[in-house]
Amino acid sequence: MTNYVILALIAGAALPVQIGINAALAKYMDSSIGSATVSFALGTVALAAYFLITRQVLPTGAAMQSLPWWTLTGGALGAFYVAATIIAAPQIGAALLVSLVIAGQIVISLILDHYGVAGFPENSITLGKAIGALLVFAGVVLVKQS
After folding, report:
1. Which helix (H) or strand (E) holds 104?
2. How far apart are CA 29 and CA 34, in angstroms?
3. Residue 32, class by beta-carbon neighbours within 10 Å (0-12 exposed, 13-18 middle, 19+ buried)?
């Protein structure tokens, strides 16, 4: 469990750096969507290299055809996220952007867990979780006012 916690913290720390880099790229390219496209293209190359280096097995056509349709929407959601952060970052700054992203993630995460959808096990919203979400929103307010 500790390794996953550390991995999640590192991924979280990388997020504002990625947003800043992508926003800077958008400035140089004069295109937010162009920046997102370059980011995804390079990310695809990196994942393909990892895939080949680790000798992963490609799924069969039958396996791909049997997937539920909604499992294929993750890439589009990722593209939306990257493009949205590239567009918003220069306007509102890293701290407010990331705090709003986290607040949005908390809300939808509680709903996904509560109903056990999108591949997550059912895990009810508790008073403590609701208070935690409210504290995150209080943090957004404090970050915005600073």
Report:
1. helix 94-115
2. 7
3. buried
pLDDT of 86-141, one tens digit each?
A: 999 999 999 999 999 999 999 999 999 999 999 899 999 999 999 999 999 999 99
Give the C-alpha separation, 95 to 143, whole Å. 7
Tell the burial category of 40 from Cβ atoms under 10 Å away from its Cβ (0-12, 13-18, 19+). Answer: middle
- Please determine, for residue 1, whether its predicted confidence score (pLDDT) is greater than 90: no
Structural domain boundaries, residue 102: 2-145
Are residues 110 and 119 in contact, defined by beta-carbon separation less than 8 angstroms? no
Q: Cα separation of 35 and 89, whole Å?
A: 13
pLDDT at residue 136, as a whole number: 95
Q: Does the reported pTM lie above 0.85?
A: no
By C-alpha distance, which of 11, 41, 45, 44 is closest to 25? 41
Residue 58 has pLDDT above 90, yes or no: no
Instruction: Give the number of domains in the chain.
Output: 1
Closest CA to 141 of 101, 100, 107: 100
Contact criterion met (CB below 8 Å) for 110 and 125: yes
